[in-house]
Design brief:
The chain is of the alpha/beta class. The protein has six helices and seven strands, in the order ββαβαβαβαβαβα. It has helices at residues 31-36, 65-77, 88-97, 114-122, 141-150, 163-174, and strands at residues 14-19, 25-29, 57-61, 81-85, 102-105, 132-136, 154-157. The strands form two sheets. It has a five-stranded parallel β-sheet, sandwiched between helices. Helix 5 links the parallel strand 6 and strand 7. The radius of gyration is 17 Å and the shape is globular. The two termini are 23 Å apart.
């Protein structure tokens, strides 16, 4: 169970987000919020047609040039602004220079792997709540568990990588699109 991102205020009826084994986030109801809830009968305001929220910025960390370009295009086609870097050191540098709403990282990389990068981000106050999605060829249950234990918010195998699935995860974890 993880608290909501500081970038997105928690809705009053929810306390946190739980992650299923598949990496899908599920809201956790707030007992206090339910106790205080008084329906007003008001319908929420509708966003004007044509107004758009700013595009979410995603940092993609992948050492394979071919895979990095394929994933970058997939994410851009889903409507994200993507900065793609070949390794964890470059990712840390990019995070120091720019703001991002989500990090998508591979595990198997030279020097520092994606799990080490995730642990390092979780240990830094500035990035402790930054959503991290691991996308890896490693697909055993113990690999997924290791990713989630390192602090990843979701874990997808490259074999199951689909634009709508990762796009939906980024939007849910990184904020409204």
């Amino acid at each position: 169970v993880r608290p909501f991102s500081h970038l997105v205020p928690a809705p009053p009826l929810y306390a946190a987000v739980a992650l299923l084994a598949s990496g899908e986030p599920v809201p956790v109801l707030s007992m206090r919020g339910l106790g205080d809830y008084r329906p007003t009968g008001e319908v929420p305001a509708v966003v004007a047609v044509g107004s758009r929220a700013p595009r979410l910025r995603v940092l993609l960390v992948e050492d394979s040039l071919v895979t990095r370009e394929m994933e970058r295009r997939l994410l851009e086609d889903e409507g994200f602004d993507v900065v793609a870097v070949p390794g964890a050191q470059e990712a840390l540098q990019a995070l120091g220079e720019h703001s991002f709403e989500c990090v998508v990282t591979d595990i198997e990389m030279p020097e520092m792997n994606g799990l080490e990068l995730t642990r390092r981000l979780r240990g830094m106050e500035r990035f402790a709540q930054l959503p991290v999605i691991v996308v890896s060829t490693l697909d055993r249950p113990e690999d997924r568990l290791a990713g989630l234990q390192a602090g990843a918010d979701a874990y997808l195998s490259k074999q199951e990588l689909q634009a709508q699935r990762i796009g939906g995860l980024i939007r849910r974890l990184g904020g409204p699109q």
